[in-house]
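Hi everyone,

Forwarding the result from last night's run.
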Amino acid sequence: MFHPNIFDSHHHLLDMAHNKDQENETDLIRDDELYGPEAQSGDDQDPAQIRPNKKKRYHRHTQHQIQEMESFFKECPHPDDKQRKDLGRRLGLEPLQVKFWFQNKRTQMKNDKLRAENVRYKEALSCATCPNCGGPAAIGEMSFDEQHLRIENVRLREEIGRISGMAAKYVGKSMQLYPHLSPGSSSRSLDIGVENNFGPQSGMTGEIGVVDLLRSVSGPSEAEKPVIIELAVAAMEELIRMAQSGEPLWIPTIDHNSLEALNEEEYVRVFPRGIGPKPLGFKSEASRESAIVIMNHMNLVEIFMDVNRWSSMFSCIVSRATTLEVLSTGMAGNYDGALQVMNAEFQVPSPLVPTRENYFVRYCKQHGDGTTWAVVDVSLDNIRPNSISRCRKRPSGCLIQELPDGYSKVTWVEHVEVDDRAVHNIYKPLISSGTAFGARRWVATLDRQCERLARSGPDDVRVMTRKSMDDPGRPPGIVLSAATSFWLPVPPKRVFDFLRDENSRSESANSSQSNMLILQESCVDPTGSYVIYAPVDIIAMNAVLSGGDPDYVALLPSGFAILPDGPGGGPSTGSEVGSGGSLLTVAFQILVDSVPTAKLSLGSVATVNSLIKCTVERIKGAVLCEAS
């Protein structure tokens, strides 16, 4: 049935297209001359001579040269400088001549495609019917949709221009936009004229090692960057609609009301072409999930745009990831408009499920009044004809909405096409349900990690200063104190035994000095246990042991307070006091300056912060490792 949204224009626009066809006839004649048996090429034309009243000069390529370049074009339509030089040397041509020949060839193919598309639109328009009565559609009925498409196209072109400008500033080169997103083209399509270039779809004859694959993928070429920008902008549009739409695009599953399934027929209707048809033998996996997480929306955006923090946050899913090239860092002060090309490998913790590798672009954009952000990923495999991939991402990612009190609402869409024939049969139900790689797993991991970070974040460290003057038993100067508390899933007795053991002190101590001793006191009572210690100079300690005044020994005690996390470790265990988890407080005192009137530097605060965090991590690592 006819749907007006699939057309870029209507009868009054077809006249314009017809005129454009006539204008292009000259180009086509020249293309025939360029690529025919006795082809001429404008490779060595002098731009100053291209005037209506002056005769154009052409350089005739030999039949052998044309055949060689045609063969090379089939393998690599976008040769780099080295390839052009090698080909030119082999054929006796200048690299510039080879470059222009390939440009002309790509232009000819694009013109042929546009002409065929124009014919299809004319035929479809001539057969258009009214969706209500079934009769011939009147032209006036399409005007509103046409106007809507024009407005949407203008907005998309402005967005592409803005991103291209930022990318040009960052990479230092201007970026010419491809003309296929013209005012007469549909913004509902992600098609960029390369949908037929997707690599081998099935029956792969060889396997590539994961490490080799990740290392072999290079950043985008200059010719690919404008295509990537357009693809990213269109992918962002699709993600937002996928995240915000309800039925009929998303329909509830029969067996589980809280899960949604993508209506693929409706998806194809709303997004007619996307990044091209689904490769033969591939299966679609689409899912959507929402959750409220305890993390500020800007912190989430920063994590997504930092590949190291992102891969650490989702370490159970992302086995390795790298940023190949940053096309844009976004607006000053935030990530609005940030664009980067990435490569990542995704995993399920089982040798029976192959990993999934993706070469994709990540685009971040601020929406509305600034309280909503979107981060979208979309595969780039199809812009490289020779790429081999068993998995590709259609627009996937998340919408992040700011909520009060440091919370955020995250709506995640995961949409991939994958060749799952290598998955073991016992894992196929898990994979097809979306639990393994779907939105639910991403959101559950994010929620768990945000909760963990909120419980052990840097805001839990408390720092204070004290000036010490003429205070017996304490060194004069500025003393910096820092303390933090955290939970350990280990019984208090085990934590106490570990911290008071001199043999394990090196696990939690950050340094040792040969001229210092450690004076330590350990005690236990029914409510908790304590390990208090202070470094003491050997000479001062010997003086005290020889009968000297202990007030002349300067002490700055530090230590640990270990409390049970509840009576008997919780009502469900019924075990004795002290066998559940532990609430551990770590406190340090450091003399940062021996002059009491000195000013405290920010560097000293940062140092003690770093010290206490490092100590906490060492204690966690050692105690949890010992417990396991």
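Confidence is low (pLDDT under 50) at residues 1-56, 170-215, 569-578.

Cheers,
N.
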